[in-house]
Amino acid sequence: MTPPSEKRPLTAEDLFKFQMIDDPQVSPDGTQVAFVKTWLDETQNSYRANIFVMDLASKATRQLTYGEQQDTRPRWSPDGQVIVYFASVDGSSQDATQDVAPNVAPASDFLDKLPQLHIIPSSGGTAAVLTDLTGGVQGHTWSPDGKKIAFTTLISSEDEPLNTDSQDLFAAYNRDVLVTTRVRWKSDAIGLVGDYFRHIAVVDVDTQELTASSPRLLTRGETDFNSPKWSPDGSQLAVVGNLEASAEWQRKAFIYLLDVSSDTPEPKELVGLEEMRSNDLAFSPDGTQLAVCGHDDPIKGHYGLQKLWLIGVADGSKTCVSEHIDMSFGDFSRNQDMRRYGGDDGPRWAADGRSLLLLTNVSGSVNLASFSLNSKTLTPLTEGDHAVFAFSADASHKTVVTLITDNVNPCDLFQVTAADASGYKLTHLTSINQD
Fold first, then answer.
1. Which tens digits make up the pLDDT trace of 264-288?
2. Which of 148, 259, 400, 407 could disulfide-link to 143, CB 3.0 to 4.6 Å?
3. What is the largest CA-CA distance in the chain?
4. CB atoms < 10 A from the CB of 163, how many?
5. Residue 204 and residue 222: Cα distance in Å, rounded?
6. What pTM does this model have?
């Protein structure tokens, strides 16, 4: 490290030296944590990211994926044997109209550039590609039995198939003309989406052969669906969307249930809230309730506190269990410039169904806490002038890993463990920018 006498002002070029950690994911048995490490490639003027796995007992870290792409969002299979993740593509080999219009870029500039789903043994080895979709893959989640993966993909409003191979010359040579009837035709994260909508798809996965079936589309139409979450018995998916005609002019969001056994399930509306910023849904262990953070005040719009709600799966009843607590739940530190995308920040149930892990926002700091459903009180698990912007835990909540940023350090992993009857302690797992 630079001695104090040799300190100098920060320069723009120093940004190339920083590394970032994202998306901690504790293994099902609680012994390991997978995470994403991102750095800047100065020669290519781009980000690079690979997945690493740390043994929590020894803190020994091994690199799981390699290459110049961006590998993100690792998710352990329920048995812990494999990890599925996103890997970016350059699109150079996936352009279906390359033969007829080699120099015409698509107006919807995300096409063939969004990441695809990959799978790799958690012990290491060769990765396999599970999807090859024009609209890419986002927000994947394993079924409880480890045999299926649900995710979202962007689909044209014209009901194109999942894999598009058009040879129509007019369509090919007019790919650079964006035609849209949507209000929300552009995304900061993706680009010009035009008349493409985010929909839910499912693939069957063979974790031994590292293969997947062709995707089966569960939702269609001119609306977006997000955040698929499996019910504990694997029979349903809870998703977030808005089927109202004026959906694009609203912030309101609805929770729907999809029957996974049906080829064309009709979304069953459970309940709507005026806003659900994170859209993170969490089924209770017995499958009777969904936990979600949001508010239901039409006047407050984007500025309402994100309270904790319990939704009855059978009847759509909704109860705000944190109305008496004057704070928002989730990560709203919004320190985006020195991190990529964070990770899971929504509510997570304890195995006994009596409490949930939550992120709390107080005076600009974000910390992890446990919310008791019996007493309706919060127990802080971390404290300090920092932002916990993602966390992960095994089913027992005995192993909890957080991602924390503060004024000086962009990000590091910390393990949260019970110190004694009076509190918890943080164990520093990484020091990625110490140099």
1. 899 999 999 999 988 789 999 999 9
2. 148
3. 71
4. 14
5. 26
6. 0.90
